[in-house]
What we know:
Layout: H1 3-7, H2 17-35, E1 47-50, E2 53-56, E3 59-61, E4 64-67, H3 87-93, E5 99-103, H4 120-131, E6 135-139, H5 155-159, H6 176-187, E7 195-200, H7 223-241, E8 246-250, H8 263-268, E9 276-281, H9 296-305, E10 310-316, E11 319-320, H10 325-342, E12 347-350, E13 361-362, H11 371-378
Parallel strand pairs: 4-5, 4-12, 5-6, 7-8, 9-10, 10-12
Antiparallel strand pairs: 1-2, 2-3, 11-13
Helix pairs in contact: 2-6, 6-7, 10-11
Amino acid sequence: MSAEEFRSGPRWTGYSRVAMSLVSVVTALLVVGVFSSPVGARGSSRVDASESGLSLDGQAWWPTGFNAYQLATDWSVNFGCGAMVDLDEYFGSLPPRSLTRFDAFQALAINRFTGQMDYGPMDAVFDAAERHDQLLVPVLSPQDGACETGKFKSRDWYVDGWKNYTPEFGRETMSFQDWMNSAALRWRDSPSLAAWELVGEPETSECTDAACNWWTRNCPPDAAQVLREFFDDAGAELRSTDPNTLITAGFTGGGQCGTAGDDYQYVSASPAVDVVQYHDYGADGVPLPGDQWNGLARRIVQAADVGKPLLVAEIGENAGSCEDLDDRADHIDTKLSGQKAAGTAGALLWAFVPDPRLAECTMDIGYEDPLYAVIGDQAD
């Protein structure tokens, strides 16, 4: 689910081919020369993946943690996405060796006053994670455009739009292709980098109205093929820039366009995907939600069939005015125990915020939330 969706309500997810190739080469050289300033000193990733799960520093690892989408928000520099976070306080509050998934969108690396690239706020996230020996999954772009361009990514974006710079969308200075490579060059050696995520909750549907409402979108016949080719191509390019770090596909997993039914396994089989995902909402206290075609039990089998671990990267349940925080913690503890026993590779909760709205019905998780104890107890 998008950050914007959850923060706004209770549930807040004609150049020729040759000319374009030359532009890409020149842009890549500029990115290397001007923007590359890697953080950290490690030459290879600490995290590995196999059918049996994830490992960290050579030891089996069933990570827990939070989605903390707003970590790179700095209102003195960028456009922001949610409230600002004291990074040392956040990373210092986590159980050891936790995993945090956060928004690393291009818009958050642009100085809103100058319009120029400014990596300072995102560098600060990596620096703080390293100081506290915590792990990160940067999400490089959102499907729905929230906190980024505001534009939903339709089928055409996955065909070739990700390679093109379209300044009319705003909050961009380069194509997604160049942003992906720029980010990889800058942070690929960070000891806190666990995996890259290209797009959060990707789907290859087509919009039929200006608002691109989900109930009016079309799912084209080649939706799965287009999504698979995107991961094959964009993932291979990311791998060439950073050959050591895992790539996770941020699938919702519930039957979305491009990954419905058997298409989930087809796209997951991409050689540029190392870890697959499932996002779990609306089944409080149920470890394996969903039906026989698109439920979590089916996704675990499909992930095993392609030899890849499955991370439940978003688990959300409302609390506050509508449910006691301790009851939510009990429900999620039950859910995590069942998912671990069923063969998942880890669990991340939606969503940490520094300013939880306890008087409202939301999925907000603050520092004093009993879910901290849950992720600490469940972590391996």
